[in-house]
């Protein structure tokens, strides 16, 4: 991994902060590289031995404390929430802080089978030498157990229930049998699992009661108020603009406030003043999408316009985020434009751009 890498794992990007936090004294759970308090500081921001720690997650401290405390027990952590509530983001950062490695990750899909969760075989080796440790292909879960790291399971509920249940032995016995070798791998200290799942998706497979009992669930919410949502979007857009080498225009804050207002009103089903009821579109209109809309707009503004953000650059991406169902959502948006934005003088540019598109 070099400077030409598109995106480094967060333990590399924030290496200096992690190093400073590792120096903080205090009791550590076995296998942890920093104290649970330092992990929370890493996520929420603060200071460690004179080094400023930036905030990675904006939200309730109690939630993050519960998540971190869970990992110090024999239960695994399940981060649940609607799409775009920073589940993967939090899981990556916690893994980086606790064990210095966020890369042991299994993306669970409907096609994930046991060999992608437990271990597979290198068939050339298997034929040449028969079943042996050399012929065994370890999965990220297997390697996390061996090395005492955190394994991240993304979208846990997308894989079949029978495959999910292979985790039960791992979570309750902290070992994985390898019957072919008459052997087993025993988890080293520090090993645990962070799974994420979203509760909006279609085609998910519920966790069995046996597996559910082995996870502590922490629900990550959408930001409760306008200010925190603006803060999250501003922070992430600034960071992403920097990493993409896109200049951030002066009026970014103003446009972020306007886009977040539109998102919050449509998502909540009423105007911010609570006076007009609205229909909500089918998509989730998460904070993550607001971030994506702003970054898309920035790119358009810097390559196709004079660089400053305007409704002209942002309206098409706002439209793309709102209209997920071409018939139903278009009607929802048209109604919002006519009943709300048309009457607001400071949104006349959004109104005219978007009403031409729906
Ligand atoms: N409260 C928050 N604090 C900081 N960043 C946030 C917050 N909410 C959302 N984000 C940002 O949203 C982006 C998307 O988050 P992420 O991909 O982790 O969502 P997710 O919950 O895993 O969604 P999905 O269910 O679609 O996988 C990240 O860049 C993250 O920084
Ligand atoms: Mg995710």
What is the radius of gyration? 23 Å
How are the strands ordered across the major sheet?
A: 4-7-10-3-11
Q: Give every kind of bound small molecule, once each.
A: adenosine-5'-triphosphate, magnesium ion
Given helix and strand content, the structural type is alpha/beta
Distance between the termini: 44 Å
Q: Low-confidence parts lasting 5 or more residues at pLDDT below 50? A: none
Question: What is the H-and-E element order?
Answer: HHHEEHEHEHEHEHEHHEEEHEHHHHHH
Strand tally, please? 11
Helix content: 40-55%
Treating each run of at least 4 consecutive H or I residues as one helix, how many helices? 17
> So, the CATH homologous superfamily of the largest domain?
P-loop containing nucleotide triphosphate hydrolases
* Beta-strand percentage range: 5-15%
Return the CATH architecture of the largest domain: 3-Layer(aba) Sandwich
